[in-house]
């Protein structure tokens, strides 16, 4: 990090709002409004929750598989194609405001859905599209698996940014793959309004630990459901308990401390200034992929090739038989 970088301040915004459970158009409108709100507060980086567009598939947590068909099909219809008018609208907002945006979407790719994280740089370009490598528990009924190509830190206007979704943070090798690429800001996001209070507690532990281990800032956003939305997902009071709490929108320093108090209920936007000099301050003491690493003893093998269902092997040109010329008529 140069002297100029050492004096760099990044204003981060972590957004905790409710999606529009009726479809992507309403949720995209909420995204664009939140971008404008955060940008007016001076934000350079704006982070949204997991698969926020059109909405996290909360139904899959409380409905048995045999009853999920209609809601799963509706999610297919409302999911986001990349690129699309929806992603272009977010890219345009990033360019207009000069901000970096990290947005979670349900991505539709032909016959499959994926839990996808999109990083838009401040020039409106899509710096990264990555897919959650392993959907968790009930999510395996909904999404396909990502690949190692998405375990990538990207250089943005604000510095080096990496991202993981939800329980990917419990895969230490996935986290190490990003740490080894020297991420300065790590973005996490979770669904929120799920499981109960213990989920929020676990998120806090996980985010603070990653910040310490990576020597990076962590900006994490979780979603929120209103009481009306919870009732619309399930009328059963017992199942509704699984759709409350579990929120921990937070911004953590490389020293593992909250930069501002976390947001654990309701809607809101956390704003905090990140003093990037703290990255070097932490790594001077413990750089887990540098002077504190022992790669000759322990190292990670990361297959960064995109997963392909077909690997076509063409015959070399010199082995392709040349047809014999037809005999001329006598």
TrEMBL record:
UniProt xrefs under CDD domains: nitrilases_CHs (cd07564)
Molecular function, one GO term: nitrilase activity
UniProt xrefs under Gene3D superfamilies: Carbon-nitrogen hydrolase
Domain CN hydrolase residue range list: 10-276
Family according to the record: Belongs to the carbon-nitrogen hydrolase superfamily. Nitrilase family.
Protein name: Aliphatic nitrilase
Species this chain originates from: Roseobacter cerasinus
């Amino acid at each position: 990090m140069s002297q100029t970088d050492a004096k760099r301040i990044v204003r981060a915004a972590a957004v905790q709002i409710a999606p529009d459970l009726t479809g992507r158009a309403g949720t995209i409108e909420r995204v664009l409004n939140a971008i404008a709100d955060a940008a007016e507060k001076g934000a350079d980086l704006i982070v949204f929750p997991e698969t926020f567009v059109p909405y996290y598939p909360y139904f899959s947590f409380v409905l048995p598989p045999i009853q999920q068909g209609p809601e799963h099909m509706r999610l297919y219809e409302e999911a986001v194609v990349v690129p699309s008018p929806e992603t272009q609208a977010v890219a345009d907002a990033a360019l207009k405001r000069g901000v970096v945006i990290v947005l979670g979407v349900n991505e539709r790719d032909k016959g499959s859905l994926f839990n996808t994280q999109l990083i838009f740089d401040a020039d409106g370009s899509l710096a990264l599209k990555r897919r959650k490598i392993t959907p968790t528990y009930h999510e395996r009924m909904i999404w396909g698996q990502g690949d190692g190509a998405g375990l990538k830190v990207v250089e943005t206007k604000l510095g080096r940014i990496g991202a993981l979704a939800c329980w990917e943070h419990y895969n230490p090798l996935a986290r190490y793959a990003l740490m080894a690429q020297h991420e300065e800001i790590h973005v996490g996001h979770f669904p929120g309004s799920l499981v109960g209070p213990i989920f929020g507690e676990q998120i806090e532990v996980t985010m603070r630990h990653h910040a310490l281990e990576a020597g990076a800032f962590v900006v994490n956003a979780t979603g929120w459901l209103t009481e009306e939305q919870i009732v619309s997902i399930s009328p059963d009071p017992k199942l509704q308990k699984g759709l409350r709490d579990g929120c921990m929108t937070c911004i953590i320093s490389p020293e593992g401390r909250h930069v501002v108090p976390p947001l654990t209920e309701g809607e809101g936007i956390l704003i905090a200034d990140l003093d990037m000099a703290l990255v070097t301050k932490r790594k001077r003491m413990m750089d887990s992929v540098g002077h504190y690493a022992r790669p000759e003893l322990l190292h990670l093998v990361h297959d960064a090739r995109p997963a392909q269902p077909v690997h076509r092997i063409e015959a070399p040109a010199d082995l392709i038989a040349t047809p014999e010329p037809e005999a001329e008529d006598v």
